[in-house]
Amino acid sequence: MIKDMIDYDETILWEDKPTKWLYVMGSPMFYLFAIIWASFDGFLMFMFFKAGSFSDNVIETGGFGFPLLLFFLIHMTPVWIAILAPILRLIAWKNIEYVLTDRRVYLVSGVFGKDITSLELRDIQHLTVNVNPFEHMSQSGTIHLTPDRGTRNTSVRGHKMFSIKNPYEVYNRIKRVALDVTTDQQYPNQYRPSENPGYQTKYKK
Fold first, then answer.
1. pLDDT digits 0-9 by tens, 130-144
2. Alpha helices of 94-166 — where are they, by DSSP H?
3. Are residues 137 and 57 part of one domain?
4. Which structural domain, as residue segments, surrounds residue 58?
5. What is the CATH number of the domain that holds 137?
6. What residues have CB less than 8 Å from 67, skipping those under 6 apart?
């Protein structure tokens, strides 16, 4: 899809997708939290049931059991998220693309359609690589292209490439291309060479 979206003189240097099982799984710690939450709610429901707080027919709106059941259904939202989120991520995985060109980075995502975000190479800030234990087992990692930002009232998530293969190699490639292209773009147009040999200037004290 991206090949149909890039400029006519834009060249794709690298493209990939997240490691499937890592992306679908998401954060393992959230599942641990959901299990603890479900155990706590399950214990409370058992105690209420044992004490007779649930009426014989919980569907009857006049009984005390119905609002209590409704409360627990809402209160177990983290459990429902832990169940439904992997299904949505499985659907979304087929739409995800990460593409590096000689001009920008493209991030394609979306569940029911494809959402495209383009990030100019000069806008990449605080490039970092994070590798969790599960990613380490699969020789994968997450690259942060821009940091998360926020104020007291709002927050903006940074741009990330989740669970990609060979993260350190990709990190070095993005870092080098971003430096070369940004330096080339800052050079005055009338003196710009026809080809970009890369940033080769050495710093000397």
1. 999 999 999 999 999
2. 133-137
3. no
4. 28-90
5. 2.30.29.30
6. none
Helices (H), the chain: 20-25, 28-50, 65-75, 77-93, 133-137, 167-186
Structural domain contains residue 11: yes
Find tokens 């040999």 and name the residue: 197
Query: pLDDT tens across 53-76, in order?
Result: 555 555 444 455 667 778 888 888
SS3 126: coil
Confidence of residue 202 (pLDDT cuts 50, 70, 90): low
Residue 78 shares a structural domain with residue 119 = no
Q: Is 101 helix (H, G, I), strand (E, B) or coil?
A: strand
The CA–CA distances, whole Å, from 84 to 90, 136, 149, 163, 202 equal: 10, 26, 28, 20, 53
Q: 102 and 39 in one domain?
A: no
Is pTM, for the whole model, over 0.90? no
Indicate if 103 and 181 belong to the same structural domain: yes
Number of domains in the chain: 2
Tell me the one-letter amino acid at 141: G
